[in-house]
Amino acid sequence: MKKTGYLTLGAVMSALSVTTMLMSYVPTLTYSVPALAGMFVMVVVIEAGVKWAVCSYAAAAVISMLIAEPEAALFFLFLFGCYPIIKVPLERIKFKPLKYLLKLVYFNASVLAVYFAFTAITGTSMLGGEVKQYVMAAILVLANFVFLVYDYALGGVSAWYIVKLHNKVSKLIKR
Known about the structure:
- This protein has 175 residues and is mostly helical.
- It contains 8 helices and no strands.
- It has helices at 3-21, 32-48, 50-67, 70-80, 83-91, 96-122, 133-164, 166-174.
- The longest helix has 32 residues, at 133-164.
- 30% of the residues are buried.
């Protein structure tokens, strides 16, 4: 396939990611919008490979940091934007307990990075009021479960994309 096709695909998917990130100003969409925007990076991984996906992700992340809601932009930057890229080598691990352990380590490290970056950028804590530590622990356990559901869904969407759209998009890129 031609490099111009890869470049065009990466640019279009970056633009779609950024456009999706603009919806992050809707208060209830702070976490779901970055997850959806990351799926456009997944398309670049499938069609053009990891190198082009990293470029597409980087462009979308920089622009998102400038125009999207800060918390959602940080979740895109540290977690959902790059997860489709990181998922590729993780899926190659045959030993399932290790694979899922590494995915959860990545998720928890990303959440901590978002928390500390948000605190540093805004000077305010994401943890409002007097939240008890056991409540935060329960929320984190629930968030880990939701992340595993997201991981499963991302795999399903990837499979659907390959079956339904991959051939059509590949033909467009070759032109």
